[in-house]
């Protein structure tokens, strides 16, 4: 039906004395018809809703129509000023109407969301605070608004205020008899406490959450989703601490839990308690999240083929979800997955692929300023690791320096400093800067983070420096400490690196038997990971060892292996440096330079470190 005919038809209904509900419902019906058309006819939908005001509707209808118009304009157009005007009117009018909670609080929630989008956070906060203050008799909205204000504080990095609000929410949920939503508030608070590294507060809180989750009897999907949330926090806590072996039981429980959820059918029966009307994440998002933490574990443990397998599954699932869902969390998941698989590629000798995936992260970050703010340091860190792999040490230093400037995350800071120290060791002439860094990551004294993995890596860096300085006994002490720590938590890559370096030390000292005892298991472990650089190093040592011991056949076999690894790395090196994306190594400031790459004629970096 044509719009003019529609309005004329409704006008006739209104003037003929029909009940107000009839003409209003007719306009509402037409508006909804246009909104849900394929493709949506938003302009006609808006006209129908605006026509409601021509009939001087009652206050309730007026407020609800302002809310509907604000919502349609906010979600389907770029006219945020008009959307804001309608939502502000809906909020103002609805406050004057008794028992009109849904319109009142939905207007407040949507308006504060719009304010945040317009960078008017100082307008959003008092609005949400007032809405929270007057919603205490409406459990669903009171909890939802508390979550929303806590999220706003979290985005502003004010985690203390966010934790306080989540604590208020947990207590409110307990009072109104919603143990389910109480658990959601407490788990959310636990997540923020983990981000703040307040481990003393995290442990008792997670223990309480575990008890609440196990005792709660309700919708099976809701119960299992609480268990997933709880187990994800436990797994990430272990992984942050670098405890790759200790996390395995929790990770196994998490994987079993997500399998259980995937077999459950969504129950359409609404909870009897309105405070229970919340979901942590959709099932499909939870599946991707479990893939993600599995990839994180595989990467740290050195099971890189497993990491690749789960990354492929997760990225395939993400592509399907992003066709139907524009939720920002999906892009966050995608970026974190890519960050981990990029590090895997650099280890396995696929630098060209890693560089293209770094470029993909740049493109994703360019689409979202918030995503870039949260991942800029990681992006420069990955570029620094890539620069090391192609022997561009000056660029690596510049990338790691940029990354340090952009992070306040302690574990990431320690990871960057460790890698920057390795750059200074390789350059051999940066003694003052190197010793300054090493003082800040001294594994024997006041190590800055609780990560088992990073502390083991710090011992390795000390051992590497002592090796280059010819202080072999000191190097052996540091490397044995690394081995002890890496064996305790199945840190396979650190184990392989420590074994091959110890093997090299014993070879230099003329202890060929002990050298062989180190290099052979290093080679086996490196092949299992697979770690191309350690394989190259081990094969070179095996060639020299066997030659020194007169084992001609074994020496020839090791030489052939070394030649094969050298050729693979050389070809990959040339391919990577020939890509236009290789110019990213010069980017150290500002937003990611998407679309600014220029192809180079060929590699410009030294291959000496590979051969």
UniProtKB/TrEMBL annotation:
Enumerate the subcellular locations listed in this protein's record, separating them with semicolons. Nucleus, Nucleoplasm
Where is the chain membrane-spanning? none
Report which residue ranges the record marks as coiled coil. none
Could you list this entry's UniProt keywords, alphabetically sorted.
Answer: Cell cycle, Cell division, Chromosome partition, Mitosis, Nucleus
Q: Which cellular component, as a GO term, is one annotated location?
A: nucleoplasm
Question: Where is it chiefly localized?
Answer: nucleus
Which Gene Ontology biological process is one annotated for this entry? mitotic sister chromatid cohesion
**Database matches in InterPro entries:** MAU2, TPR-like_helical_dom_sf
User: Which family, according to the similarity comment?
Assistant: Belongs to the SCC4/mau-2 family.
The entry's protein name is MAU2 chromatid cohesion factor homolog
Q: Which organism is it from?
A: Salmo trutta
What gene is this protein a product of? MAU2
